[in-house]
Amino acid sequence: MEASKQRYYRFCIVTYNDENSIKKLLEQSNKWEYIVHDKDKTDKHIHINCSFEQQKSLRRVLALVEGKQNTFVQPMRDSIGAHQYLTHENESEEKYKYDVKDIKSNDLEHWTREKPDSNYEFITDLLRGELSYREMALKYGRDYIRNFKSYNNFVEAVREQERNSKEITVKMLDKTELQDI
After folding, report:
1. Which helix (H) or strand (E) holds 157?
2. What angle do CA 152, 153, 154 make, to 5 degrees?
3. Dihedral angle sign, alpha carbons of residues 56, 10, 69, 108
4. Who contacts 68 (Cβ-Cβ below 8 Å, separation ≥6)?
């Protein structure tokens, strides 16, 4: 798909405009957080992390910020890393460390709550099947809902592989037992 037509739910934005320029963006975002970086070695700028209920193109999100000639938008790939970057939490000592209290948000808990740290927990939950669909959707979010059929196909493929593996193991045991006789 052509880059200008791709759509995303989550974005990282940097603008060199003032806070008034992002009001429309914040009003239309489902979840958002931002911080003003005014102690960096560069000009004063704002870092914004936001998500939307409906997918949007980079161009559409850019249009929500006034004074867009000094604004950069990219899809968010890592929400934890994006949040940590607001304060320069994991950046070099050369970067000014901003206080978490400087972050403005409509739901800071959304950006700071612990997320599964690996695919292991997700795969385990899928294969065990102990959580209801509702619990899985609440725990893993929209991605789980959107890819539900693919995940179910994955679970079936793994279970089939495990059944075949057990059958092969049983056949191998049978051969061993026959050799011992």
Report:
1. helix 148-180
2. 90
3. positive
4. 15, 62
Kindly report the backbone phi and psi dihedral angles of residue 96, in degrees, each rounded to the nearest multiple of 5, phi listed first.
Answer: -65, 135
pLDDT digits (tens, 9 = 90+) for 131-166: 888 888 888 777 788 888 888 888 888 888 888 877
Spatial separation of the C-alpha atoms in residues 122 and 158, rounded to whole Å: 14
Which segments of the chain are extended strands (E)?
Answer: 8-15, 31-37, 45-56, 71-75, 104-105
- Strands 104-105 and 31-37 turn out to be antiparallel
CB burial of 140-160 (b: ≥16 within 10 Å; e: otherwise) equals beeebeeeeeebeeeeeeeee
Q: Which residues make Cβ contacts (< 8 Å) with residue 54, sequence separation at least 6?
A: 9
Count of CB atoms within 10 A of residue 63's CB?
A: 15
Give 56: exposed, middle or buried? Use CB within 10 Å, 0-12, 13-18, 19+: buried
- Write the DSSP symbol of residue 16: S
The pLDDT tens digits for 67-92 are 866 999 999 988 888 898 999 988 88
